[in-house]
Amino acid sequence: xxxKLYLDLMSQPSRALYILFKSAKCDFExxxxxLRKGEHFTDEFTxxxxxxxxxxxxxxxxxxxxxxxxxxxxxxxNLIPDVLYPKESKLQxxxxxxxxxxxxxxxxxxxxxxRVKILDPTFTGKAPDVKTLLxxxxxxxxxxxxxxxxxxxxxxxxxxxxxxxxxxxxxxxELEQPRAAGYEPADNFKGISTWWKKVPEHFNPYxxxxxxxxxxxxxxxxxxxxx
Length: 227
Known about the structure:
Elements: E1 3-7, H1 12-23, E2 29-32, H2 43-46, E3 56-59, E4 62-65, H3 67-76, H4 89-124, H5 130-152, H6 166-180, H7 185-188, H8 190-196, H9 198-203, H10 206-210, H11 212-226
Parallel strand pairs: 1-2
Antiparallel strand pairs: 1-3, 3-4
Helix pairs in contact: 1-6, 4-5, 4-6, 6-11
């Protein structure tokens, strides 16, 4: 069996899959794709993923894109533990419910705040428009409020129940983006803070390993904000 994971650790779902693979003791080959250098636009990578995005897996010649689809495939292939993506119908449906919601409910808003505040100015050399940035920040905060109220304040310890699953891993990796842009979700949402601490505790040392690059960005931006 040959399993390859194409990723960039600046990408939230890339980090989530990397952590998942490592914690599941998957025998895989890490294939780095540097998004900042535009390597995802090369002919070589486009031949692997016509959508020119990461993450992507190649499993014995079978290529699959999209993190949620990859997780479900890995589960069917028995490559990840059932405890992280249970096969029991109702619990799996509860996890899928979150995975369907998080694309537009959480990921979009956290990612866009990071992009407008950090990525776009880095590539263009222009400071973000204050009004535009505030609009993205407002939508992100609203998304965090919804996440805390409807997914963490449901009488359970984790997103989909009292056991940690892939839903928690994907959510935690998403919240690292606003943190890197100078907004600390844990400082502003008690429920998120309590839950968030449990995710690295469960997945370490791989959670910290996957976040070395984004943590450097976080510290760099904190330093720049003080100047």
